[in-house]
Specification:
The strands form 4 sheets. The chain has a 7-stranded antiparallel sheet. Helix content is 28%, strand content 21%. The structure holds dihydroflavine-adenine dinucleotide (FDA).
Length: 505
């Protein structure tokens, strides 16, 4: 690639209200390192040996994206689109090919229309910004998406998107009513002009395989003025295993207003017989007040021993702060702070559970967990609305028949520990095989895991059959329709990545 050719092409095709030096950054630009690192979440892909982009484009106008797409295609550069930078495998900011990053952080306006119960959200907005802008207009509307406020709308919505109210309202993708996308030819399309196939594909099949999503139109959902939260931690010594066994039989059957998940960590007990043990925290969000919540839990989960004093009532937006790990006393505008993002080395995996894990399975799990203190497992209950949506309604296929999803996570602070933690999480994943979904062993696309399989380098010669190895895990039989749509909309496989949807011959 002749750098000057790409730059000339980009300059020629863009509208500029600001100097070009504020929109495109070369490796020589003083701001290049800080922009590269800005939203990149996983330090595994920010080491000195990680591949770096030729250019970073930070569009402030749609024409900059159109120009970046058309000129990259013309001069053989790959693109990586970044919205919030939370991809677990860093696919929005690393690539083995010669590439550019289109970083959408400047395109993040949000227009909330309470009268029509909808909003337009640009892809570069974060979930925190979206929740803040909704709450600013109304206390009785919300949106069912993820709990981490710095996650970007662009990647999150195009891969599913679940949070604490998804048992009542479904995923983010179940509540999208329109979208604007820039296609392979640099055209801007909306739902009508892109057609229902492409509109289906980008609601769960990953945006990066199909174009650059500019914005989404979402349907707001109603939330009560008071919600209730609680968290009850129990170590193994305090009976956590028995409680978890019971939880597995009821968590997907609770009332749709109740989300009661379980997070599992390794902790050190104090006192004379101090030791490492496992702690399971049963945490909940209830769309209603404590008087309604207590009898619901007492009826189906009396063993938890929930008391009124364990519960806190608050507004929905305060619960957003709570689940983000922030103090509910902080001013809500902390949600607008994009730089509060936790940057760590991270590896994650996921599974779906269709039959409760037997006691013997849990006993083995505890032993593996205590081998890595930096581990975390999050068990998310399904059921309710999630069981009432068909597997093919969107590319996200994990609906009825799943009791809960597991996220396995391990994080650390120094690069030299990477191999140790990654080997450990792979061992844990291998151990869990008999206890989770089979044929295929399914996984959540937004918890990207390249261990499941990847396309050949640079998109050359990856057959559909080869890609089915990982594609069916994320999308089950929706993978075929995704490949069909990909073949029609991007026949030259320009929007390629390690786990982009493959083409049919
Ligand atoms: P990022 O910018 O890295 O993009 C992710 C992928 O989407 C990349 O392939 C990228 O190229 C593509 N992409 C991004 N913007 C695009 C656009 N405009 N057009 C086309 N393609 C685009 N999930 C969940 O469901 N619920 C949760 O509560 C959480 N919580 C959570 C916490 C933390 C700390 C992390 C790191 C991750 C999560 N996730 C999650 C997972 C999250 O949903 C997932 O990583 C999203 O893809 C992140 O979207 P970003 O835009 O931030 O990522």
């Amino acid at each position: 690639v002749h750098a000057s050719n790409f730059l000339k092409c980009f300059y020629f095709r863009s509208n500029f209200s600001k100097p070009i030096s504020q929109v495109i950054f070369t490796k020589n630009s003083p701001a290049y390192p800080s922009i590269l690192q800005s939203s990149a979440q996983n330090l595994r892909f920010l080491t000195s040996s990680s591949p770096k982009p030729q250019y970073i484009v930070t569009p402030i106008h749609e024409s900059h994206i159109q120009a970046a797409v058309v000129c990259s295609k013309e001069y053989g550069l790959q693109i990586r689109v970044r919205s919030g930078g939370h991809d677990y495998e860093g696919l929005s900011y690393v690539s083995d090919a010669s590439f550019i990053i289109i970083d959408l952080a400047n395109l993040r306006s949000i227009t909330v229309d309470i009268e029509n119960e909808s909003a337009w959200v640009e892809s570069g907005a974060t979930l925190g910004e979206l929740y803040y802008r909704i709450a600013e207009k109304s206390k009785v509307y919300g949106f069912p998406a993820g709990t981490c406020p710095t996650v970007g709308v662009g990647g999150h919505f195009s891969g599913g998107g679940f949070g604490t109210i998804f048992r009542k309202y479904g995923l983010a993708v179940d509540n999208i009513i329109d979208a604007r996308i820039i296609d392979i030819n640099g055209r801007v399309l909306d739902r009508k002009s892109m057609g229902e196939d492409l509109f289906w594909a980008i609601r769960g099949g990953g945006g990066a395989s199909f174009g650059v999503i500019l914005s989404w139109k979402i349907k707001l959902v109603s939330v009560p003025s008071t919600v209730t939260i609680f968290s009850i931690p129990k170590t193994l010594e305090q009976g956590a295993a028995k409680l978890l066994q019971k939880w597995q039989t009821i968590s997907d059957k609770f009332h749709e207003d109740l989300f009661l998940h379980a997070t599992i960590r390794v902790v050190n007990t104090s006192g004379q017989d101090a030791k490492k043990t496992v702690r399971v925290s049963f945490g909940a969000m209830f769309l209603g007040d404590v008087e309604k919540l207590l009898p619901l839990v007492e009826e189906s989960f009396p063993e938890l021993g929930l008391k009124q004093s364990d519960c806190r009532q608050m507004s929905w937006i305060e619960s957003v702060l709570y689940f983000a790990g922030l103090s509910t006393r902080e001013p809500f505008d902390v949600l607008l702070n994009r730089s509060q993002q936790l940057k760590i080395f991270l590896k994650a995996k996921s599974d779906y559970v269709k039959e409760p894990i037997p006691e013997i399975g849990l006993q083995g799990l505890w032993k593996i967990l205590v081998e890595d203190e930096a581990s975390l497992m999050i068990l998310t209950p399904y059921g309710a609305k999630m069981s009432n949506i068909s597997d093919s309604e969107t590319p996200f296929p994990h609906r009825s028949g799943n009791i809960y999803k597991i996220q396995y996570l391990v994080s650390w602070e120094v690069d030299k520990e990477s191999n140790k933690h990654i080997s450990w999480i792979r061992r844990l994943y291998a151990y869990m095989k008999p206890y989770v979904s089979k044929s295929p062993r399914t996984a959540y696309f937004n918890y990207r895991d390249l261990d499941l399989g990847r396309n050949n380098k640079y998109g050359i010669g990856t057959s559909y059959a080869q890609a089915c190895v990982w594609g069916f895990k994320y999308f089950k039989s929706n993978f075929k329709r995704l490949a069909d749509i990909k073949t029609k909309t991007d026949p030259c496989n320009f929007f390629w990545s390690e786990q982009s949807i493959p083409l049919f011959p």
